[in-house]
């Protein structure tokens, strides 16, 4: 067991411990922070596997993007300090049993499959190669998935705006009323009086 | 580097996957369910990179799949959070047990 292996096991233990805390913590904000640390641990695992480009993407997209988005939505939707109700004991035991069964089943499967253990020492991914193959139109190029995924991102962005936008609060009706008011010939003093008396509750309707 | 066999990396990613699975089963809050889904997607990414590194070191397909999965996970998280915020606006709650209009 050399230094590299020790580093690998340390990173793995850290990642798994943080992931376990993220799914069991009863305070939602702490849960998000544990998730963030777990994702940093996974990025460290990528660094250990010498795929620095993926590690950088992991940190930029997950740690810098998704977790920040999650924390924002936590602040938008509930009080951060409140505790979530604990799941019932029956459900906890059943879930733990299901997860443990799946875990040992998969462990057994992996153990007996017999992968070749020859990790090649010269596995290096340069950003240059990744970019060239990503945008090449030859046989092993990824230009088509690249375009498809860019369309997916665009449509997801538009969809997010459409879903999360605040519904207009009866704005057209108010405009129409104003237009009608303009058509009726009322002396200016009366018009001002009407405008002053129509206060907020008449216009805004509770949705 | 070669002292750690491939199976140990697969063990780590499997454990992470079932940690996320446990969270998916026990949590009732939509944001925490989303967190569990992120853990599951990340464990799959680890698998892709590990297979690429150990079994096909002269190719890069695993790297590309990881990049695309990360992209799609970002889109998925954004849409999910938009839905959560909209649900909170109409129901004042993001508990999955409270959103039962479409339950048949």
UniProtKB/TrEMBL annotation, chain A:
Membrane topology: Multi-pass membrane protein
Compartments reported by the entry: Cell membrane
KW Ribosomal protein (keyword) present: no
InterPro entries hit by this protein: NADH_UbQ/plastoQ_OxRdtase_su6, Nuo/plastoQ_OxRdtase_6_NuoJ
The EC number(s) this enzyme carries: 7.1.1.-
Catalytic activity: a quinone + NADH + 5 H(+)(in) = a quinol + NAD(+) + 4 H(+)(out)
Keyword set, alphabetical order: Cell membrane, Membrane, NAD, Quinone, Transmembrane, Transmembrane helix
Domain of life the protein comes from: Bacteria
Main enzyme class: translocase
Transmembrane segments: 6-24, 31-49, 55-77, 89-110, 142-165
Main location: membrane
Family: Belongs to the complex I subunit 6 family.
Role description: NDH-1 shuttles electrons from NADH, via FMN and iron-sulfur (Fe-S) centers, to quinones in the respiratory chain. Couples the redox reaction to proton translocation (for every two electrons transferred, four hydrogen ions are translocated across the cytoplasmic membrane), and thus conserves the redox energy in a proton gradient.
The name this protein goes by in its record: NADH-quinone oxidoreductase subunit J
Biological source species: Pinibacter soli
From TrEMBL, chain B:
Localisation: Cell membrane; Membrane
Its membrane topology: Multi-pass membrane protein
Superkingdom of this protein's organism: Bacteria
Keywords, sorted A to Z: Cell membrane, Membrane, NAD, Oxidoreductase, Quinone, Translocase, Transmembrane, Transmembrane helix, Transport
Keyword Membrane: yes
The UniProt record lists the keyword Translocase: yes
UniProt-listed InterPro entries: NADH_UbQ_OxRdtase_chain4L/K, NUOK/Mnh_C1-like
TM stretches of this protein: 6-25, 32-51, 63-88
Gene Ontology molecular function: any one: NADH dehydrogenase (quinone) (non-electrogenic) activity
Signal peptide feature range: none
Pfam family, one: Oxidored_q2
EC number: 7.1.1.-
Family stated for the protein in its record: Belongs to the complex I subunit 4L family.
Subunit structure of this chain's protein: NDH-1 is composed of 14 different subunits. Subunits NuoA, H, J, K, L, M, N constitute the membrane sector of the complex.
Name of the protein described by the UniProt record: NADH-quinone oxidoreductase subunit K
